[in-house]
Amino acid sequence: MSKENSIKILLDKRRKAGNLRSLSLTEQQLIDFSSNDYLGLARSEDLKRRITQAYLNQSSKNGSTGSRLLTGNSHLVIETESFLTNHFGFDNSLLFSSGYMANMAFFSAVPQKGDTIIYDELAHACIKDGMRLSFAKRMPFKHNSIEDLKLKLAQAEGSVYVACESVYSMDGDMAPLKEFAKICQEYQANLIVDEAHSTGIWGINGQGLVHELNLQEEVFAVVHTFGKAMGIHGASISGNNELKDFLINYSRPFIYTTAPSDFEIISIQTAFDYLAQQPNRQANLFHKINIFDKTLENESPSAIKTIQIGGNTKTKRIALQLQEAGFDVRPILSPTVKEGSERLRICIHTYNTEEEIISLAHQIKKMLS
Questions:
Q1: pLDDT in tens, 151-161
Q2: What angle do CA 216, 218, 222 make, to 5 degrees?
Q3: C-beta neighbour count of 114 within 10 angstroms
């Protein structure tokens, strides 16, 4: 069979299952309940002006011109990593172009042959993709299950790494980080926390849940992503000095990729500085979350809300009805989530009005009744 035919067969299989992915333009006229711009920083004209002005004030190149180890390093990068180190409360930090690349960099390099990675079964694809490039043994544990984590830790070999997310992107629920940290200390395991959906939202000036819970001493590494609540792009890994040195020397996604541009680097510190001057943004978001929860009798503490429907066809149909009613709500279909757990994923933002939130909640109630 030719490669063209095998590709066609796989695409047809997706088409018949009702889960063929395609690119579509963002529907600007709809009320945004789907993006990860929780704090409204991505759409902030004020932040855009500040980033642009900071960039123009720098004597900067358009591009970084190479990897960090060749021509892509600069005082600007070093200063920003120093800022992030202090901000997140760790010994050191290393910048990456995205959260996906940061997780790939860590899990493909740090766990070695003879080691064990124990990961939450609902961990993001980038964590799992990074693990596939590692020679370490891999074991999933049941989502947020303390008992199953203990069971897997008892079976682990070599250096042990436990991977979880602080807030899960598809369900919006939160990991029991304090309990996980305590268990990892008991078993001498290294806890790695992906803060993609908590960076900017929790902690003073967006330092994240690990910092808010004062767990820096118990956590081996934290991945922070800036392309969601912070409204820009990029990511970092924070940990001890040896971890940074190891990643610089052994992590292929770091060694062989072009460094971020000056514009990307400037955007990071400018966004955090801006958030520090906007102390009400986080409180405003939690107020809006509370309105949705009360109206729809939901108890998830994060900005991510899910309404499980089941079945790709039905889930897409309800999402389309909500879009026709003016709400940009997207369906999450299998295989992104397990078959039978297809759902609507709803994101609450600071710029959603109380009326819009209540109206959406009532519309969902009506459609599901």
A1: 999 999 999 99
A2: 55
A3: 11
Using one digit for the tens of pLDDT, what is the confidence trace for 27-52?
Answer: 568 999 999 999 999 999 999 999 99
Instruction: Report how far residue 96's alpha carbon sits from residue 83's, in angstroms, rounded to the nearest whole number.
Output: 15
Task: Give the β-pairing of 343-347 and 304-308.
Answer: antiparallel
CB 360, CB 327: distance < 8 Å:
yes
Q: Which domains does the chain have, with CATH numbers?
A: 47-276 (3.40.640.10), 280-368 (3.90.1150.10)
Q: Around Cβ 70, how many Cβ atoms within 10 Å?
A: 12
**Token pair belonging to 51:** 């980033």
Examine the pLDDT at 2 and tell me if it is beyond 80. no
Give the torsion through C-alpha atoms of 197, 299, 122, 92, to 10 deg: 30
Amino acid letter, 101 = M
pLDDT per position as a tens digit, 104-122:
999 999 999 999 999 999 9
Each residue's pLDDT tens digit, 162-172: 999 999 999 89
If you search the block for the tokens 């809006």, which residue do you land on?
Answer: 288
Determine contact, residues 140/257, Cβ cutoff 8 Å.
no
CB 172 within 8 Å of CB 304: yes
- What are the angstrom distances between the C-alpha of 29 and each of 26, 33, 98, 323, 328? 9, 12, 28, 10, 9
Amino acid at site 252: R
